[in-house]
Amino acid sequence: DTGVSQNPRHKITKRGQNVTFRCDPISEHNRLYWYRQTLGQGPEFLTYFQNEAQLEKSRLLSDRFSAERPKGSFSTLEIQRTEQGDSAMYLCASSLSGDNEQFFGPGTRLTVL
Amino acid sequence: SQQGEEDPQALSIQEGENATMNCSYKTSINNLQWYRQNSGRGLVHLILIRSNEREKHSGRLRVTLDTSKKSSSLLITASRAADTASYFCATDAYTGNQFYFGTGTSLTVIP
User: Most exposed residue of A1, A36, A66, B28, measured as fewest CB within 10 angstroms of its CB?
Assistant: First the structure.
């Protein structure tokens, strides 16, 4: 399978704990995006990378959120001191460029108790 | 806040009928994309239309774009039960780097 993969698929954590998600994009794609989606809503843009450079971050992304793409391949999204409001589906997508379709991964569903 | 807004929020039709969904957005765009999402799954890209295009076809899908009205429509012809899903439009901001999704249209096709 050469699509976008995300791990883990599900994560249950207690409030205050840190969590880290991983995204492996399609190998030749330069751009990588992170989105958050809550029930009944569309995905909300969080941040995007062009190769290893994080070029834009949404104002939705609080200081507790950090994302990396150290070698321009896979990316990680870390949430520190999780809150119940962080419960959502976290989606990763990749594309060749901004003018191309984005290919989405299956998402990581986070539940903060 | 999300830029795109789909209309209607929910649509229920009989198999074989056509389904039309609309999307309105607020600012200038480079392109507009439509995605489908089955319950609890990731999004699947359907079609991309650029700001200088007015209409595009892909199989049973027809997309129109009216930049003067800042709106787009997605028509699915001869619907099938397998088309049951949520449909989202996504627009890029003027920088082309951020993408904004609407709240989606939930389509149910009754066999």
Answer: A1
Cα separation of A110 and A70, whole Å? 23
Compute the distance between CA of residue A39 and CA of residue B32 in angstroms, rounded to an integer: 23
Q: Say how far apart CA A45 and CA A40 lie, in whole Å.
A: 16
Tens of pLDDT, residue by residue over A30-67, are: 999 999 999 888 999 999 999 999 988 888 788 999 99
| Interface contact flag, A55 B100, Cβ < 8 Å | no
B93 pLDDT band (50/70/90 cuts)? low
- Other Cβ atoms within 10 Å of A16 Cβ, number: 10
Mutate one of A32, A41, A91 to test the B interface: name it (highest B CB count within 10 A): A41
